Hints:
The chain has 501 residues and is α/β, with parallel strands linked by helices. It has two domains: 3-239, 3-Layer(aba) Sandwich (Rossmann fold); 309-485, Glycerol-3-phosphate (1)-acyltransferase (3-Layer(aba) Sandwich), CATH 3.40.1130.10. Helix content is 49%, strand content 15%. It is built from 20 helices and 15 strands. The chain has helices spanning 3-21, 44-53, 59-71, 76-90, 95-108, 116-127, 140-150, 179-191, 209-214, 225-234, 251-278, 281-300, 311-314, 329-337, 355-361, 372-389, 413-421, 433-436, 467-483, 485-488, and strands at residues 29-32, 131-139, 154-158, 160-163, 166-171, 200-203, 217-221, 238-239, 302-307, 319-322, 341-346, 365-367, 392-395, 425-430, 447-453. It has a seven-stranded mixed β-sheet with strand order 9-15-14-10-13-11-12, sandwiched between helices. A six-stranded parallel β-sheet has the order 3-2-1-6-7-8. Strands 4-5 form a two-stranded antiparallel ribbon. The relative contact order is 0.11.
Amino acid sequence: MSPADGARDGDTRARIRAIREAEPGPGTIAYFDYDGTVIDGYSAGAFYRRRLREFDVGPVEMVRTVLSGMRGIRTDDDFKEFLAITLATWKGRSEDELLALGRTLFRDEIAAALHPEVWELVAAHREQGHQVVMASSATRFQVQPMAEELGADRALCTELEVRDGVLTGRVAGTSLWGTGKADAVRADAAAHGVDLADCFGYANGTEDAEFLSAVGHAVAVSPTDSLRRLAVERGWPVLDCAPRGGLFPSVADLARTAVFYGGLLGGLATAAGAGLLHGSRRRFVDMAAGVGSDVAFGLAGIDVEVSGAEHLHSARPCVFVFNHQSKFDVPLMMKLLRENFTGVAKKEAAQIPVWGQLFWAADVAFVDRGNSTAAREALRPAVEKLRDEGVSRAIAPEGTRSATPRLGPFKKGAFHIAIQAGVPIVPVVIRNAGEIMWRGAQTMRGGTVQVAVLPPVDTSSWVPEDVGKYADQVRDQFLDTLAAWPERRIAQDGRSQEDPA
């Protein structure tokens, strides 16, 4: 962990302590600005990039947008001009169409920009029983998907006029830029009978100074220079979040990714030689997992903190289940498990260069998720290899990468395999692999991944009819572990504990 990462971690823990010291219950509201605060950057950029990809931006609009971006949005007039450009392009489109587009862009692009530090703050407020409210100058099409993902009680945003389900190109009421946001927050608190002096506010821009001044607990999140100076003057705490990366990766991230995959390929080449020498495909796979991942992680400067490491070996053969946020989870599980294991993957993974060939060599079971009958047939050899040869399985029961740290529902396949093979389940809880390599990203950042390996779950008394119940019970272990992670890192004297579990 770099000094900057350590400072950010300390800032986050300090903010969580402040939340836990506040009065519990719905009499406290936490108001979160969106662009630049909950996410790194601006959600409008995803909408604009989609239109660029679809060649839906004319030359006049392009020039107006570029000039607006160069000037920046510093005043109410600047915001009105920028909003007018957007409204002109949305005029005549249906509300349902734009809501659907907003959810698609959230899943594919915007969710990856979520600040994990803010995610933890929201979770802490929810644990205290506080109301969580998004307060943003952005439109509902931009804000609503994130509000739903955060479990926010409601969203205050710039509402657009809709007639007969179609946008008119005008704002409904007042935009929530600057004073408008402060007024909306005051009105919301009054409507819910809450004293703003008991409330929290999180924002990143100077335009939100009045909003932050209105609440009793203001926090400047990754603030602009001018808001940072104002925060110092007024004694507001500052939370600097880790940068999430922009449209183009940094040179350092490109270099790190190159050496990571170079090290992995080097390990594969070494493993291939050993496999040929010993005439063993299993020896090749085991060396590829162990040596290749060690070299790749070492060259890229990515560390792994593991608690409960003894459970990685004590219950084999078994079914390892892990939460899935990133393509980085695959090499991470290789490093953790090292030998005598294989996995289950969607059939499309067989076509990924290098990985597809490695998966084939490792006897990964490729599953057609759209065909349940074919999926069950594909899993039959997995059960036999686990039961008869003692080769453990690593499976992501969510089935697909989650867009945010929120844990998705667990599918039943991994648990059926464990029942049929008569082996235990070992939960592997990964906290922050998505911060190393975001969902959909092609490059990776440096840092430390935190992993908690939980004790094996005995399946000897399980029956197939109740497999859904068992899956939910194991998922609850993941939820409890992820929710308690800030607790693990806060000792009674406020210092970080060495063991994250």
